Automatic annotation (TrEMBL):
Name of the molecule in the record: Polyphosphate kinase
Binding annotation for ATP: N50, Y469, R565, H593
Family: Belongs to the polyphosphate kinase 1 (PPK1) family.
A single cellular component GO annotation: polyphosphate kinase complex
Ranges where the Polyphosphate kinase middle domain occurs: 123-305
Catalytic residue positions: H436 (phosphohistidine intermediate)
Catalysed reactions, semicolon-separated: [phosphate](n) + ATP = [phosphate](n+1) + ADP
Domain Polyphosphate kinase C-terminal: 333-496, 505-671
Amino acid sequence: MTVATHLSRVSFLDRDQSILAFNERVLDWARRTEVPLLERLRYLTIVSSNLDEFFEVRFEPHLSARLSNEQRGPVTVQSYAAISEHVHRLVDQQYQIYNSELLPLLEKRGIKVVPHGERNLRQRRWVREFFTQEVQPLLLPVGLDPAHPFPQVANKSLNFIVRLSGRDAFGRENEIAIVKVPRSLPRFLRMPGVKGSRQVHFVSISSVIRAHLGDLFPGRQVTEFSQFRVTRHSDLAVDEEEVKNLRTALRVGLQHRHYGRALRLEVSAGCSDFLSDFLLQQFDLPPEALYKVAGSVNLVRMTQLIDLVDAPELRFARYQPSWPIQLTPGQSFFDRLQQGDVLIHQPYESFDAVLDFLREAVEDPNVLAIKQTLYRSGSKGEMTELLREAVRRGKEVTAVVELKARFDEEANINNAELLESVGAQVVYGIVGLKTHAKMLLVTRREQGRLRRYAQVSTGNYNPGTAKLYTDLSYLTADEALTSDLEQIFLHLASQNRLSRLQKALIAPFHLHKAMLDRIEAATQAAREGQPARIVLKMNALTDEPLARALALASQAGVKVDVIVRGACILPAGVPGHTDNVRVRSIIGRLLEHSRVFFFQTGSQEDLWLSSADWMNRNMLRRIELAWPVTDPSLRRRIIDECLEMSLADNTDAWLLQPDGVYLRAQGVNSKSRAHAHSAQAQLMARYGGKA
């Protein structure tokens, strides 16, 4: 039997099921008693937010297969049923944790969301007054009849369906009405407390409206009702080849995003079959799309409650990143980079240093040009404002703005328009490809010649998420690498053929093949009896050619370690197939986001950092960047902090089993319990930030 035939029997794991399994690992943080209570609640909301995005982006083909009774291919009636069953199970676990664990614990700590039946007279008066003055004027109930069809209901909005007895003003028995709740209303409110009590009482906006639904239908009686929320397909589809102005086309698309195809219907647990069947019919959804939940239909909005609670002891202690160890406050970045490259390990070290690098470039009269890619830079636009100031100071500024960064389209359009308004050169990358590479290039005149300085990163230029995501920023004055970056920017702006690069790898041209070549080199080394090892750290591994190459490498004897936060289709430890593959997922306080690729081939060791996960879209449908790290001290530091510490983690790590199930490392190895090791906690302590 040949290796190729042997490999053909390996079944890759299902990507969508792997995404849901990732959310089960996140949900585990909501169960952990050692985690502060409000943070447990926050992890619950994170899972809800992730599930929303899963439906909005990944689920539409499965629903189409269900409705068309598709029986063949990767997306079928069966895949719809399997995913629906998994999501239902996950949602049931969420609400069980919410109702049976978190709410009782919050009440013990004096924090209570008070339902209508438990409000005292003073609280009921307060709720009625708030409803009358602040809520009722914004509500417009729609009674359904041939002249009043079912209204357009926006994606993920809160609504009520009401069944009425009696007749309307015209003597008709139209019994169904819809009440849409404006997004402008706060989802939670703090109520007056009981005198002398230390408890803090809250009320949800849905409870406020529910208690006074009858006020919206004078002369009629509400016989039954339910909250409901519909999740819609929200991935923007724009034919870039056909549109003349991508920015204008995306603005139009954003207006319609909230009304895409309905995919999921959430209702209250007590919703009658009559009302739920009516809603399913209106949204053209099968029974499996119905989710009856014992609580708010939108747990994501619980984040507002978390923000309203003033209880620092129920949150993680604030972590203050340290200043990068390779940098001296006040020293010129240009002087420092002439001495060697600088690595910033975020958020253990502060992202503010990246902002300061750009700020120095803006203020330095010797800097002539600044070029930067912007994928997710946030709505506050701190970097955008620095680039605008650079234009005002007479510098040439080029910004490659990715308008199609999912769910950040509007912020990026606004940033692009702000830059154009002062005269910056704004381009939108290459038609058909998202620009996901993170590059900042500064050109400076020094002693009669031009010299380049650069910052490249595994993560985004967003000061907010830079405090929550682990990423690596790399600052350099390396002539070969900065020359490569210049060529890439020229390619993105002019669309001319990309010149031969000296150090960098760029997708979709080189990166995929280069990674396959390095896996093959390690595979060949193992066959020849030489040392061979591959260690990969990324967010997702779903590209089949790369996964297949890793399985082949494993069969040849290469030791393969994959540290993957989310989806992974590569099975681990399957006898005779992936015996030498280990897959682990780190789910910690911080979102693991760094991409690090290590290859040992005989005596040769290569280390790469990248903006790209090992997904087909990253390798073939995006502009992505990878660059080698050759400085011995920085290589050692990256291997230690990103790879070895993650491989030793027995607290936040989950290990993929041969049957496709993830188990916590602490449970797999009983000896590890005596020596708890959290990579994130140790790095926080190492860098001296206040945790």
